[in-house]
Amino acid sequence: MAAITMKNIVKTYGDGFQAVKDINLEIADGEFMILVGPSGCGKSTLLRMIVGLEDISGGEMLIGDERVNEKAPRDRNLAMVFQNYALYPHLTVFENIAFPLRLAKTPDAEVKERVNHAAELLELTEHLERKPANLSGGQRQRVAMGRAIVRNAQAFLFDEPLSNLDAKLRGQMRTEISRLQKRLGITTVYVTHDQVEAMTLGDRVAVLRAGVLQQVDSPRRLYQNPANLFVAGFIGSPPMNFIPATVTDDGLSTPFGDIQLPPGRSVDLSGKEIVLLGARPESFEDADVVSDTVREHGMVFDAQIDVIEWLGNEQYAYVPYEAPEQIRQQLADLERELDSEAMRTQLVVSLDASSQIEESSTASVWMDLRQVHVFDPGTGENLTAEPAPVSDETAEGQPA
Amino acid sequence: MEREQTARQKSLWWVAGVIVIVYALFPVAWIVSLSFKRASDLSSREFLPTTWTWDNYDLILRGDFQDLFLSALRNSIGITLIATFIAVVLSTFCAYAIARLDFPGKKLILTTALAVSIFPVISIVTPLFNLWRNIGLYDTWPGLIIPYLSLTLPLSIWTLSAFFRQIPWELEQAAQVDGATTWQAFRRVIVPLATPGVFTTAIISFFIAWNDFVYGISLTSTEAARPVPAALAFFTGASQFEQPAGAISAAAVIVTIPVVILVVLFQRRIVAGLTQGAVKG
Asked: Single Gene Ontology BP term (chain B) (predicted)?
């Protein structure tokens, strides 16, 4: 087990393309770190630089205080689970798991003991004599994990390990990985583009965009306190709503009415004409079900409800609205960068499951202003972001 | 209605298949039949021999043609096996490098290999004949092995590099992360997976070298290196008016046997499918 430290890491490909730009990241010993971002953001490249499958163009990579830039993968003592598992098809499950031990010339008795132990942990004992071709997707995935945990590696590296599984299995394996990591207490770097995995698994999450680190924080802080538009739009599903607002003398003017930001959210808007308000779907509610005690913390407006999706425990309402052309363009660009495509500017509003609002009707909707973020549309910066607490940021990363 | 048609289609396919088999195998059957005929029977215009005889086989294995045939057989087997072995080892390394590494001149190697195999054998053989005589390779085993490599290597490199490209690169990377050196990853992961491809290549190389006639007859002069296809031309009858067709047929049957055995033995290995299950199915 060891900490992993990245100092000014850069990856430049032969054609001059910079996939990773000046990344500084410290992963504490035993920490579960998630690298997340849309496709092409450089997260896999970064992982492959840690393990040594990709050369480091600049900067310094330390594993357990030792510089590894020039070391071959086999000398770094890291275990990796590949996206497509990369099992050896000509070997049985037992030999697949034993492969790293065989290479290290471990005595037979010890190999047997350790493989059996790993197989037990992953419930693979009855499949040990089978070939990978005869296993299901989930079993193959577990074999790949077995191969990783059987050795005493300094850290685990996962490259989108669950993306090839169907949704149900993915949920189960996610829990399994989390349990295993806590049990073994081993430093783990996990690459994913699935934000559910990012939010549930990690002690800390590093959000990347086009090779640049956007924010490194605990999942909770990422969600409640995104550093910029990109992180705000990327984390959360359905994503945060961005509402264009014009700065006026006595507050903000939005397509849904004028707003006075509450004291806790008020920021210096002098010199700005337009800002983007960010509000998560759950910041909204059917005005009829909001209790009077909280009603005063938000604003109520009439919304033209387009479509309603009823999910049982909650429901989502879609509210289309007109945005200024310039803002619409910017939001479309952001969406594209986040691997999604918005057909129109609309609010996604989460409503209480008991709400009786109907599709294609006008309803009165309440918006909680205590949770609203204010973004500068030019720089994307979150003006309402709280500075990170200095003392407990590293402490937060440590597993309890 | 539809089932009827598929049944008819099926039978049509069968008929077509039988026609092709008969067309392809009839000359072989004719040669087998010839090899069992007596000399007087050769021009009998009958398919089956009137009396079956082992005389022809006796002639080439124990009789007059014994020296000629057995030494040729020994040459053929030795030269072909060595040429095949060298071709397979060299092309395995070469194809692996081409499939996996990015180095300058990669395209050049592939195009050169292709260009070499395009040259008609007959256009190379005359200069080679002079060169070999000058440097003392004429009528020796290496003198045949080297030209055979020029025939088998291009094909082997192309076949094998296509095969190596099918093997997921992640397997090798996984092996390296697991602690293998490049050589260990190659030997313990890539080679076992490439076995079907290697066997296919080996068999194709073997056939090419085994069946060669032009090099065999041009670059040899004695029993020291002459392979079977060339030696058959030196079989002579009791008089110059008599062709030893029976003996030649018998020899032809014998040289066909190793090829048939090889195909039957390795048929299942040639069929790929070993890479199944390496990655998500």
From this structure: transmembrane transport
Does B193 lie at the interface with A, CB-CB under 8 angstroms?
yes
If you count them, how many residues does chain B have?
A: 281
Q: How far is A85 from chain B (nearest CA, A)?
A: 6
Rounded to 5 degrees, what are φ and ψ at B274? -75, -20
Assess whether pLDDT exceeds 50 at residue A115: yes
Q: Cα–chain-centroid distance for residue A72?
A: 29
When CB atoms are compared, the residue of A74, A85, A135 closest to B176 is A74
**Smallest Cβ distance to A132: which of B174, B192, B278?**
B278
Kindly state whether B177 is in contact with chain A, defined as any CB-CB distance less than 8 angstroms: yes
Contacts B184 to A, Cβ<8 Å: 103
Residue A51 near chain B (CB below 8 Å)? yes
Of the residues A90, A105, A115, A189, the best mutation for testing chain B's interface (the one with the most B CB atoms within 10 Å of its CB) is: A90
- The helix or strand, by DSSP H or E, that contains position A299, with its residue range, turns out to be strand A298-305
The Cα–Cα gap between A217 and A72 comes to 31
- Output the CA–CA distances (angstroms, integers) from residue B83 to A42, A259, B153, in the order listed: 48, 86, 10
Q: What is the mean pLDDT of residues B156-161?
A: 88
A99 and B278: CB-CB below 8 Å? no
Q: What is the DSSP letter of A313?
A: S
Give B227's DSSP letter: -
- Is the Cα dihedral B216, B221, B224, B229 positive or negative? positive
- What integer pLDDT is reported at residue B102 of this predicted model? 81
* Tens-place pLDDT, residues A230-268: 999 888 888 898 888 888 887 888 888 888 888 878 787
- Asked if residue B238 has pLDDT above 60, the reply is no
Collapsing DSSP to helix, strand or coil, B120 comes out as coil
Q: Tell me the average pLDDT across A112-135.
A: 91
**Residues ≥6 apart with Cβ < 8 Å to A144:** A81, A82, A85, A86, A87, A161
ipTM of the complex: 0.80
Domains detected in chain A: 4-229 (3.40.50.300), 238-375 (2.40.50.140)
The CATH homologous superfamily for domain B66-234 is MetI-like (1.10.3720.10)
What would you measure as the largest C-alpha separation in chain A, in angstroms?
79
Q: Which of B102, B178, B276 to mutate to test the interface with A (most CBs of A within 10 A)?
A: B178
Q: How many CB pairs under 8 A join A and B?
A: 84
Average pLDDT over residues A350-373: 88
pLDDT, one tens digit per residue, over A64-83 is 889 999 999 999 999 999 98
| Residue B192: its H or E element | helix B191-211
Residues in chain A: 400
Tens of pLDDT along B55-105? 888 878 887 777 788 888 899 999 999 999 999 999 999 998 888 888 888
B99, containing H or E segment: helix B66-100
With an 8 Å Cβ cutoff, are B274 and A90 in contact? yes
DSSP code per residue over A165-232? S-HHHHHHHHHHHHHHHHHHT-EEEEEES-HHHHHHH-SEEEEEETTEEEEEE-HHHHHHS-SBHHHH
